[in-house]
Amino acid sequence: MLSVETRHAIHPDHARTMGTQELREHFLGTGLFAPGEIRLIYTHYDRFTLGGAVPNGAPLTLDVVDETRTATFLDRREMGIVNIGGTGRVSAAGDAWEMGRGDVLYLGMGAGPVTFEGDGRFYLVSAPAHRACPHRLIKLAEANRVELGEAATSNKRVINQFIHPTVMESCQLVLGYTQLVEGSVWNTMPAHVHDRRMEAYLYWGMTPEARVLHLMGEPTETRHMMIANEEAVISPPWSIHSGAGIGEYTFIWAMAGDNVDYTDMDFVQPADLK
Ligand SMILES: O=C(O)C(=O)C[C@H](O)C(=O)CO
Ligand SMILES: [Zn+2]
């Protein structure tokens, strides 16, 4: 079963007026991982689409998505898949890849229908593409590892870059996940914006009672959302995206937009956040 929800792009002047419920309706993705279903959110931010596929014993195939009006979803798109569950299998374009927890699969434009099987919980992101880059399975050991932050500022963390120019080619997708060192709670602090790219986060690896206090909004008009395990945040290009965990967490970040330069960020120091 496939379900698709559309999210429109929100102007920052509008976002400033929103209460908690409205912020969550526009920027939070909940219930993406339902057994036996593929659930997608099709956004109007760079046409970036995110979602989950949980085969739960029976194969699930992602093929036609009416929103794109193409013969198959990946006809003019590329896709990143992260397995956040048990071992599973993904097949497309006559190939099949076994994916363990934390493995990332890149599927290039024109890969055709994609089938998910096994015990995986597959997080999916996709953006329009202009050429077919080779499909590739990337294990954590092959990712580019960047250590950032300090224990003294509670932000010591490892940025694992998977779909990233130092590892492989893509059209506009950039993807990885960030792991906090025990005792550190902050991701992406100091915060930043990148008006050239939108971003989406998926928080995972959390206990059911844990929450992340996610900060969003323009740097001088910050807002927050409390996020539970396996919930996603859609971050518009004008928004900061940062979080502090009440409990352990990891998060997958993925971007689409004008460039694939991970370091192209406009930093905002804590003293300048309001
Ligand atoms: O902890 C961090 O810092 C991040 O993981 C930052 C994200 O990767 C990001 O915002 C990339 O633009
Ligand atoms: Zn960012």
UniProtKB/TrEMBL annotation:
Its cofactor is Zn(2+). One of its GO terms (molecular function) is 4-deoxy-L-threo-5-hexosulose-uronate ketol-isomerase activity. Keywords: Isomerase, Metal-binding, Zinc. Belongs to the KduI family. This is 4-deoxy-L-threo-5-hexosulose-uronate ketol-isomerase. It comes from the Bacteria. It comes from Thioclava electrotropha. Binds 1 zinc ion per subunit. Zn(2+) binds at H192, H194, E199, H241. Catalyzes the isomerization of 5-dehydro-4-deoxy-D-glucuronate to 3-deoxy-D-glycero-2,5-hexodiulosonate. Pathway: Glycan metabolism; pectin degradation; 2-dehydro-3-deoxy-D-gluconate from pectin: step 4/5. Its EC number is 5.3.1.17. It catalyses: 5-dehydro-4-deoxy-D-glucuronate = 3-deoxy-D-glycero-2,5-hexodiulosonate. It is an enzyme of class 5 (isomerase).
